[in-house]
Amino acid sequence: MDNWITKQAALLPDRVAVDDGTERLTFSGLAERLKKLVGQLNRSGALAGRRVAIMTSNSLLGYQMALAILASGRTIVWVNWRLSDDEINQQLSDSRPSVCLVADSLWRDSFGGKFIKFSQVCQQAAQPEELTSQFQQETVASIMYTSGTTGAPKGVMQTFGNHFSSAVASSLNLGILPRDEWLCAVPIFHISGFSIMMRGLIYGMTVRLVSRFDPQVIDTILRKEPVTTMSVVPYMLKKLLDLRDQHAGGYNKRFRCMLLGGGPIDRQTLTRCQKYGIPVVQSYGMTETCSQIVALNNEDADKKVGSVGKPLFLTQLKLAADNHEILIKTPALTPGYLNRPGALAKKKTATGWYHTGDVGHLDAAGFLYVDGRIDDMIISGGENIFPDEIEAVYATYPGIEDIAVIGVSDPEWGQSPVAFIVSSKPLSASALSDYGRQRLAHYKVPRRFYRLDRLPMNAGGKIQRFKLKERLNEGR
Asked: For the AMP-binding enzyme C-terminal domain, which residue ranges apply (predicted)?
């Protein structure tokens, strides 16, 4: 297929490709900028290999650097700037990029010769170079490392074909319009953010880029600018709703929906969205599938609270007969994990169904409900317990700021749930237990409650339950 950047520059030269609130670049202007950057990257030695790593925030220059890597015919290796030096070096050792490009604001004194500041690239005296004319469907466009909630991260390879399939399925679900504008406040080094960039190129759509999630800033943008769609996680949505509680007036008249990932919406939050006329499309997906593959449209949200919806066009889904694990087939699925040739095959059935690692159930109408991770499932007295359900109940308990539930060995029941709680207030274990018994089956109520200053999280903000188990095993 044609290079998406040059194709849109030819089809829609004057349409705005990206806007960071200070500068707006049309597709033709973007193509010219990228030609210059490719020349400078080449002169700096960054294009000496097949892969180029990048560490950036949601800046306009970071956006351009990433697309310049693609437009030069190389593969992007996305590096999460929140990682430690050791974690970064492990991923670079695994992916072996020619260099790691780093936004000046993220530079660390510990970085050595394999790291290059953005400013060093931009200072290169170089002639502009032509962009690659084609994107091959099977070519790996990007590599993202999984979050590592259960162990060492793996490099997920994502092809141009994967990204294109994901964009097509999303457009058929949301109904993309010619003048849509997608607000990107989620990190572009995650699939949630990078998929917005890729959809912008495929749809010929404007990406409204913001450096970070600031509720006040985002609320102003949604009210005053022609944004039609925004990707959010539950935390972001709730913070934005808090501002709607304080201010009169809604978002701009072109606003169409919030695309919610990272977990289903609860009844209270849904009611608040309905109160303010904010449509929400809930979704389910993963890095391995280039973003969402299942979605719950706003019109179904009220009667299907807790569901993530139905499979999108191009996605097939079923549940494993033995344990109800969610199995999928989709052209958006990764061709494999970097340097792990047999890893993907181990996660597929003999007939090609991919094991997501999530357990769920379908209702009579075919709507999917995700119960939790199969690795996190607790089997107590023959009953399956999922931490997500318990955590959702206790999340509304006064004084609990954060909670994580894991299973521990139990001589009588095999396993039993225990909870780790973050709270700045004193809490009573007996009161917590009584609260749970009023809302959960007795076997789901945590047997013990441990108080921590903070939960162990990976750089993507996900709870690392295996570290909680380690703490218990070590008596900490």
From this structure: 389-462
Asked if residue 234 belongs to a domain, the reply is yes
Q: Report yes or no on 107 lying in a domain.
A: yes
**Domain assignment present for 6:** no
User: Which residue's structure tokens are 């010929």?
Assistant: 204
Q: Which of 373, 401, 432 is the last residue of a domain?
A: 373
Q: Is residue 253 located within the same domain as residue 221? A: yes
Alpha-carbon distance 331 to 430, whole Å?
50
Choosing from 135, 153, 174, the residue where a domain stops is: 135
Residue-range definition of the domain harbouring residue 65? 24-135
Question: From the first residue on, what is the mean pLDDT of each consecutive set of 10 residues in the chain (476 residues)?
Answer: 98 98 98 98 97 98 98 97 90 97 97 95 97 98 80 89 98 91 96 97 98 96 97 91 86 96 85 94 96 95 93 97 95 97 95 95 96 86 86 91 92 90 93 94 93 83 85 80
Q: Which two tokens stand for residue 459?
A: 């750089």
Q: Could you tell me if 299 and 214 lie in one domain? A: yes
Q: What CATH number should be reported for the domain holding residue 447?
A: 3.30.300.30
Which amino acid appears at position 230 of this protein? M
